[in-house]
Structures are given as C-alpha cells and as structure tokens.
Amino acid sequence: MVSQPSRRIVRGALVATAAVVAAALPTAPATAQPNAADALKKFNELSEQASKLNQDHLKAQEDLKAKQGELDKAKGDLANAQKAEESLRGQVDLLTEATNSGANFSQISALLVSDSQQDFLNRMSAINILAADNADALQKLTDAVNAADAATKSANEATETSKKLLAEMDQKKADLDKQLAEATTQYRSLSNTVKNQLAASGDMSNISVPAGTAGRALQFALGERGKPYVYGSNGPNSWDCSSLIQAAYRAAGVSIGRTSYAQAAAGRPVSRGEVKAGDILVYYSSQSHVAMAVDGIRAVHASTEGQPVKIADIDSIGPISGIRRIEG
C-alpha cells in the first residue's frame, strides 16, 4: 500500500510531466505563422485579382470614352437639326404670310384676273411654284422637327449611359484601390530574400529577334526589361501588362487595343505548339494578363507590383487561356 506522501509525489510528477509535454506540443493552427511559400502564393493571388480589376477599370475608361464620343455626336446632330428646323420654319412662315396676303390664287381667280392667255399661264405657273415650294418647305420642316426629336432622345440616352459608366468606372477604381492595398500589405510581409528575388531583372542578355512586324514588337518589349510594373501605367518609364504589349506593337506600326481583353481578340488564334516570337499570350480564364512570346519556351512581360519587366518561362506565368498572332 502506497503512503499518502508517496501519492502526492507521484501526482506532482505527473502534473510536471504533463506541463512539459504540453509545452513541447505545437501551437494551434490559429496562431501559426505563414511560411514564405504561403506568403508568396497569397501575394500572387492578390496581385492576379488586382490585375483583373486594373483591366476592368481600363475597359470602363474606354467604354466611357466611346460613349462620350457618341454623346458629342448626338449633341452635334441635335444642334444641326435645331438649326435646320429654325431656318425652315422661317421659310414656311414667309410662304404662309404670302398665302395670307392673297398670293395663293386658285385657278379660277387666275383666269378671271388675267389680261391674256399668256398672263393666265404666267399666273398659273406662279401658283404651282408657290404651292410646290410651300409643300416642300413643310415636308422639310417636318423632317427637321423629327430629326431634332430623334437627336434629343439620342443625346439624352447617351448622357444617361455616360453617367452610369462613370459611376461604374468610379466603383471599379475603388475596388482596384482596395485590392492594391491588400496586395501591398501582403508584399510587405514577404521576406527580404523573396522581395529581392521578385525585384531581379532576370535575363538581360542580348536576344536576336526575327525580321518583320513581330520581331520589331518583340525588340521593343525586350528593350523595356528592368522597368517597373505600375497598375494602369502607359509608359515610357513603367508599364502594366497590356500597355507594354500595346506599345510594342505600336512601335512596330500596328494598332491594337489597350486592355488585355481587347488583345485577347486581336489577330488570329494559334495553338500552344505553334507559338513563336511576337505572339501574344493571354493568361487566366479572366484574360486579365498578357505577355509576349520570345520563342516557344520564354516570354517577356510586365508581371505585377514589385517586379520589373522580365523574361519568364511561358508556362510558369500562369494558366494560358489563349494565344494570338498579329502577323502571319
């Protein structure tokens, strides 16, 4: 039989052992710190989302600009219609005044007051001309009034659409700013080692390009290596993904759209196995990122915040949703 003091000693030993074991166990997942790989993955996810919102915002700007052009045209049409209406109304007023003054004789009255057959014919000709002029002026006035009404309706509709697009653009800008703030916070959480890896310019060697439009576009894009990525930037000191591609083809004498969405529909489609220098590579199902093929393996692109324009493996950039060839 174990004595009372012995039991107390055993219990104390058990408690102490439990404390040591508890201290040695890992902490709960809720307080675990993310490792470098998880932090980088999260940053890439936030950056991809921000890239999509950036393209959405750019598209909203283009939509608003196009609608503003329609609005300006509608206002111009309205001004011209109102001017024509005013002019024709004055002409109709003059003809009406002439009619009220007795100029619009009937055939019988013309016959009664005519001094000769020739005088009668002259009077009849004047009556017919006046009647034709009056009918023509009235028809033109009616057309002008209808045109003015249509132009007014078109201008009002364009105005309302522009207001909606402006509100939509402001919302997309707010969404983008929020997403950028989250991505920036995540970027700051990365280790200096990871940040330095992201900021590296990569392959800066001289790369030969093919002749022709695609080669000239690629030459421009390669020349921008090392320049920073900035959301919404149009160069020349910084770029986003689609502005770099647009500027590259502009330098080669070809005009393509500003957004990745527009570039995803430019040229003609080619398969992954057909990729060659100058092809536009479109990434993600959202078509929110673009790059330019250097060859069948590598691509040059403006990646995301914290990374310069650089060369990367084509398939490492992200899931490819389409490939477009501008030339050939």
From TrEMBL:
Coiled-coil ranges per UniProt: 36-98, 155-193
A biological-process GO annotation: proteolysis
Entry GO MF terms: cysteine-type peptidase activity
InterPro entries found in the cross-reference section: NLP_P60_dom, Papain-like_cys_pep_sf, PG_Endopeptidase_C40, TAT_signal
Annotated NlpC/P60 domain residues: 211-328
Signal peptide: 1-32
Pfam family, one: NLPC_P60
Keywords in alphabetical order: Coiled coil, Hydrolase, Protease, Signal, Thiol protease
Family: Belongs to the peptidase C40 family.
Name of the protein in its database record: Cell wall-associated hydrolase, NlpC family
Species of the source: Lentzea flaviverrucosa
Lineage, broadest ranks: Bacteria, Bacillati, Actinomycetota, Actinomycetes, Pseudonocardiales
